[in-house]
Design a protein that fits this description.
Layout (H helix, E strand, L loop, with lengths): L1 H45 L7 H10 L6 H25 L4 H17 L4 H17 L4 H23 L4 H29 L2 H12 L1 H21 L7 H11 L1 H17 L6 H20 L4 H22 L4 H21 L3 H10 L22
Helix pairs in contact: 1-2, 1-6, 2-3, 2-6, 3-4, 3-5, 3-6, 4-5, 7-8, 7-9, 7-10, 7-11, 7-12, 8-11, 9-10, 11-12, 11-14, 12-13, 12-14, 13-14, 13-15
């Protein structure tokens, strides 16, 4: 009976995760579906292509990437298709169809795409274009596929640059929230390990924070994407200054992530007698990060996070001189975390140092950059 219950609970969890993934990606999937349908209709009814399957394929492939990178994906797809078709048509005209021609055209197309600085999708589309031309054995196939690719890429660009262009600050903000949540989880695990004296749990917490580099890598990618959006999208060119500010602020999370990792490493080396002194600090910092990630765009939330971090920093300063070496290292790492939290919240580094040393007074956190409201709010 218990086995059946466990099975049902397991299936329920799997179903819940699957539904969550679908719900989070439903809007981009609907966009790709609409773009494919429109591309097919244009190729069929406007240009009278009898087999316009490549136009909807091109639209879907162009949109099948992260928000903020779909426009460049469309351009890359088109670049690969052009290279592949030109190489395929050339090989077909000079050598004719055959296995050797297919191998030659595929290799040359990918080599040319790579020499032009193409990324993986460019190489793949170049190979596909060459293969389609050689396998069909028809010199008229290449131009038709090129037109289809132009249709699909054009529809994708209309979707990404005009109809559903992502809000650049929102791109960065979402990645920040995920990274802060992962930091909070890692510190929570470390606090539990310290409270229980569980060395194995400490190693899991350390491993969790080591994996944070993937989240920070995603944040760096979104920072680059947001900058591209402001440069290339007509809708957001006037947002360049706020995006620069948001990206500079987001860069502080790299330092904060490193400080959290150092805190967990040093705290796990603290003697069992001193773990009870550092554990509440780690627990409080985890709560600060988690609460901050819940309302990152609000000035009040950032102010509260900075105030709580300042209190922790002052409490640590009062104990630092009396701490033994292993604990002193953990205290120093915790102070680094508090400093990075306050700077990320918007406080200048000099103000942070002065406030901690003075032991009194507060500071005012400036209003964060706000994501602009857009008609299709699902993109935020």
């Amino acid at each position: 009976m218990s086995d059946r219950k466990s099975l049902r609970e397991g299936l329920a969890r799997v179903g819940s995760r699957a539904w969550t993934r679908l719900a989070s990606d439903a809007w981009p999937l609907l966009q790709a579906t609409a773009a494919a349908t429109i591309a097919w209709m244009i190729a069929t009814h406007v240009l009278s292509h009898h087999q316009p399957f490549f136009a909807p394929i091109a639209a879907v492939v162009a949109l099948n990437t992260s928000r903020g990178e779909r426009g460049i994906q469309a351009v890359r797809l088109l670049q690969g298709v052009v290279v592949g078709i030109v190489v395929g048509e050339s090989v077909l005209a000079l050598v004719g169809p055959g296995y050797g021609s297919l191998a030659l055209a595929t290799f040359v197309a990918m080599a040319v795409a790579r020499m032009l600085g193409g990324v993986r999708i460019v190489l793949a589309q170049a190979a596909i274009g060459a293969i389609l031309v050689i396998s069909s054995g028809d010199v008229d196939v290449g131009p038709q596929r090129l037109v289809d690719a132009l249709i699909g890429a054009a529809v994708a660009l209309v979707f990404t640059q005009i109809l559903f262009t992502p809000e650049p600050v929102g791109l960065v903000r979402r990645a920040e929230v995920v990274a802060l949540g992962d930091m909070a989880t890692g510190l929570d695990q470390a606090a539990q390990a310290l409270e229980r004296g569980d060395d194995q749990a400490s190693r899991r917490a350390l491993s969790s924070l080591r994996d944070l580099r993937d989240r920070l890598g995603e944040l760096a990618r979104m920072r680059r994407a947001s900058a591209r959006v402001t440069r290339r999208s007509l809708a957001w060119r006037n947002r360049r200054s706020p995006v620069v500010r948001a990206n500079e602020n987001a860069g502080q999370l790299d330092l904060l992530g490193g400080s959290c990792l150092m805190l967990v490493r040093t705290a796990s080396a603290v003697d069992s007698d001193d773990r009870g002194r550092i554990a509440p600090c780690v627990r409080e910092l985890a709560g600060v990060l988690r609460d901050l990630s819940g309302d990152l765009g609000a000035q009040a939330s950032r102010q509260k996070a900075a105030d709580r971090a300042l209190k922790v920093a002052r409490d640590l300063s009062s104990d630092a001189d009396r701490a033994r070496p292993p604990l002193a290292a953990a205290v120093l790492a915790a102070q680094m975390v508090t400093t990075d939290i306050m700077v990320f919240a918007g406080v200048e580094a000099r103000q942070v140092v002065d406030a901690v040393r003075a032991g009194t007074g507060q500071f005012q956190v400036p209003a964060p950059v706000q994501a602009a409201r857009i008609p299709f709010a699902h993109e935020e």
